[in-house]
Every structure is written in structure tokens, then in C-alpha cells.
Amino acid sequence: MINPRKNQLKQKLQRGEVVIGPFINCSDPTFIEICGYAGFDFAVIDMEHSPLHTLAAENLCRAAECAGISPVIRVRKNDAPQIQRALDIGSAGVQVPQIETQQDASACVKAAKYSPLGTRGLSFGTRAGMYTAAGTLITDQLNQESLVVVHVEGKRGVENITEIVSVPHIDVIFLGPYDLSQSLGIPGQVGDQRVINLMQQCITTIRNAGKVVGTFADNPEVAKRWIDAGIQYIGLGVDVSIFLRACQTLVKAVKD
Predict the structure, then answer these.
(1) Rounded to two decimals, what is the model's pTM?
(2) How crowded is residue 134: how many other Cβ atoms within 10 Å of its Cβ?
(3) Number of domains composing the chain
(4) Are the C-beta atoms of 169 and 148 separated by less than 8 Å?
(5) Strands 93-96 and 147-152
(6) Do 173 and 152 form a contact (C-beta atoms < 8 A)?
(7) pLDDT score at 187
(8) Dihedral in degrees, nearest 10, Cα atoms 31, 124, 108, 50
């Protein structure tokens, strides 16, 4: 019998390490594989804002693991079948957007975990179950290894942050600066002090609850500022924007 994979990303977080990883919009596995060779810790396969489908996401998970990087899937919404599918295809964890209440957070955990922690459906002929090679007595181990990341990215979620962080088996509270700016009526202004102040308040609450804080950063300077503020899990850029900036740098260097 073969044992299920250990979650290296979760182990790094438990050791207190800072982890960084880009969001992936492209279906070509080359990009996510390169991210692994570049030294990123994880990559978020973005099924919320990209046209990626399930089969493409599964192949991206395979490519990520080949390159030593942990694949995490951001699902489209807090929906049990989507969360289960993301874990069944072998992701190291799920990121679930628009969590606004304790009930939202509890529903997310319930969908991500097998009994007795939740109601995730049993199917061992999946990539997560190693196509039955791992046997049927693996639910406790899969519960232990799966990473649950919830997005708090609006005023209502911020208002309910104390209740959200009280939900067991959530590993990371991911603060979404862009959606938060929109909920404040200043869409896209993630450097506005009102956004920063709310995020800093949330960081204190989350860390006091013993959970990891995550967020998104467009560039290394922003990432370092948030790391200094206590954020441990950084979504750093998007594959398409990383490629665009590299191309722009090359063009500018030659033509200017």
C-alpha cells in the first residue's frame, strides 16, 4: 500500500516559514513548472478569475509536483462540489473566496474534510486517493494534509473576522486587498491607508487566534512590507503579469 503525499506547504507554514507563490491563469503546464524551478513554494491555480477547467487544473497539479512546488486551487465560490473536486484532483489545498461569516467558514471546512470533521464525499479512485493504491483507510491522513485557505476580502468579512478565525481546521486567512478596496468604494487603490489600516487590524486578530495570515502582493516591495507586518503566506503576482513585465523589461532594455 502506498501512503498519500505529505503536504510540504503545510509543513513549512507549521514551522513558521514565509511562503510565496504566484497565481496561475495559463493552462500550459510549462508556466507552473518554471515557477517550481524558480524557487516558489506554491502556486495558486486560479479557477475563479481564469478560464481554467478541471482537467487542466489536474494536469497543472501534476506539473507542479514534478517541479517541487505545492499546487493550491482557488475555486470559483464557496461551493461543496467545487471544493471537493479541487482536493480530489490532487491539490495540496483549496482557497475559497468571499468568506464573510462564521457560517461561510464552517461550510468551507465541512466541504474540505472527511468525517468526523466534515462531509467531503468518499471516492478513492481519484488522484488524491492515488487511484485506490493508497487503500481506503486514508481519510484521517487526507484530513490532516489538506490545507484550507479562506479569503476575507470585504467589509462584512472584516467586521466578522473574530468569529471567522474561531472556526477550527482553517489554516490560512487570506486578506484580499483588491476586493477589500472595492468594498470600501475605492476599487483598485490597495495602497490607500484605509485598506492598509483594516488589513493591519485583521492581521492582529488572526495571529492572536494562532492562524496564518495571507495576502496578495503585486511586487516584492509590497510583499516585504506585509511580511514585516506579520503575513506569512504571500500570493506574489500572476503568471501572465510576470511574463508581461519580463517582456516589457527586455523591450525597454533593447529599444531605449
Answers:
(1) 0.95
(2) 18
(3) 1
(4) yes
(5) parallel
(6) yes
(7) 97
(8) 30
